[in-house]
Specification:
It is found in: Cytoplasm, Cytosol; Late endosome membrane. Pfam families: Snf7. This is CHM4C protein. The structure is a single chain. Helices cover 85% and strands 0% of the residues. The protein contains six helices and no strands. The termini are far apart. It has one domain: Helix Hairpins (Orthogonal Bundle).
Length: 163
């Protein structure tokens, strides 16, 4: 079975059909395969167009009928090439969208893991204990500031004595 018929008939693995659809990796691989196949067909058509153009030039005025036929084939090949370009563009767009969706899914999954980890870390914390601790810290900082202020004030022994 050709790659194109496999692609359109969904000739995938039995495992992917059992899950309800292909995985993102499988779909990306198939899209890349299709892109490669279409690129090869593009190259083939481009060489055929060149050949037909050369044949038309060769026949030129000597054999107008053969030259005209070569130009008609060239035009047909150019039409096919244009269709392949459009198809490739669509496939590239779909592949990029799938890659972005897969990336977004991974990011979301990792964010979920991080949220669970944060929840686990915060399980052992009690807001009341944290509030009490912060009050204790503030009180101790105030005491330290008072001590620092008391130490740093100049001692004015002469001014304090009453004659």
């Amino acid at each position: 079975m050709s790659k194109i018929s496999k692609f359109f008939k969904g000739g995938g693995s039995a495992a992917s059909k059992g899950r309800g659809g292909p995985s993102p990796q499988e779909a990306l691989a198939r899209l890349r395969e299709t892109e490669e196949m279409l690129s090869k067909k593009q190259e083939y058509l481009e060489t055929r167009i060149e050949r037909e153009l050369a044949a038309a030039r060769q026949h030129g005025t000597k054999n107008k009928r053969a030259a005209l036929q070569a130009l008609k084939r060239k035009k047909r090949y150019e039409k096919q090439l244009s269709q392949i370009d459009g198809t490739l563009s669509t496939i590239e767009f779909q592949r990029e969208a799938l890659e972005n969706s897969h990336t977004n899914t991974e990011v979301l999954k990792n964010m979920g893991y991080a949220a669970q980890a944060m929840k686990k870390v915060h399980e052992n914390m009690d807001l009341n204990k944290i509030d009490d601790l912060m009050q204790d810290i503030t009180e101790q900082q105030d005491v330290a500031q008072e001590i620092s202020d008391a130490i740093s004030n100049r001692a004015a022994f002469a001014d304090e004595f009453d004659e």
